[in-house]
Amino acid sequence: MTIPTGKGLIALLLLILVAVTVAVSQRYMIWHYTWDTPEAPPLLDQVDEGPGVRWHDNYFTVQALDARTFAIGEPRYYQRNYNYLLLGTERAVLFDAGPGVRDIRPVAQALTDLPVTFVPSHFHVDHVGNEITFENVAVIDLPYLRARAPDNRLQLTDREHLGFHEGVAAPTLEVDEWISAGDTMQLGDRSLRVLYTPGHTEDSISLLDVDSGQLFSGDFIYPGPLYAYLPNSGMGDYVQAADTVLSSAPAGVRILGAHRDRVPGAPQLTLADVQDLRAALDAIRSGELSGEGFYPVRYRINPRLRLLADPWWLQDWTPRRPSLASR
Ligand SMILES: [Zn+2]
Questions:
Q1: According to the model, what pLDDT value does residue 66 have?
Q2: Which of 24, 86, 101, 221 has the fewest CB atoms within 10 Å of its CB?
């Protein structure tokens, strides 16, 4: 082999540069197609869920967190999703609808006669219910989402849905209500504040019930590995989300996430875990905390939490929407 010189060398270097740029920008897709198979693993075995949790059928579990707050679990789905039904006096909110492996609507209907509004914490395949259609849907009001849905029909993209992991097509959401960061959703005598908590994805929200001291955090935080290396993740966004939660949630708030790491019951964390996450983000940024592996890099936050992120030289610490911080 002869080593090119002159124009040949420049062309070769340009070719390498283009290849590296494409590989970096498409790293998540390359990782996915290298390691993944496009279908969900089989259902896990049904196990004893402990006191206070009952099986609705052989797939869903129901746990009353108080008289009008229910965790609807899918512990047999490999991602062990938890969805929350929140009752007011005039309407109910279903925060997340699972992957649609089974229809969650009859579970909600067995728990309330109120009209139910479905609110996705974000648009990933395991939260939006996919082929399930809801009568009322409320979605975070972000300019780029509104621009895509002039008729209130929001077609999710593969990048924000990631259903190709499991062979599931991205659905279209029929949006009835656009909810803004800092808005309060009124359910009658119960109100839920919408917190913009990006980082895991650009479109992530949490719902805060100040009166009952509950924060429903979606995939922003839950016990287990937190994913911050996905196509629309951001480290600066994660910092913003942690700050918003720390400045908004009352002391002693019970944080209820969307996935669990262990039996029994719904996944629960406290503000101390968010403080640990916030401190870890600072330490990652400054280089004090190093992670394991190359892609994704695994950072230990505390005994129950890890953060999976891009390598340091690809981490983006600029928040996309700083104007929505602490709202
Ligand atoms: Zn997610």
A1: 97
A2: 24
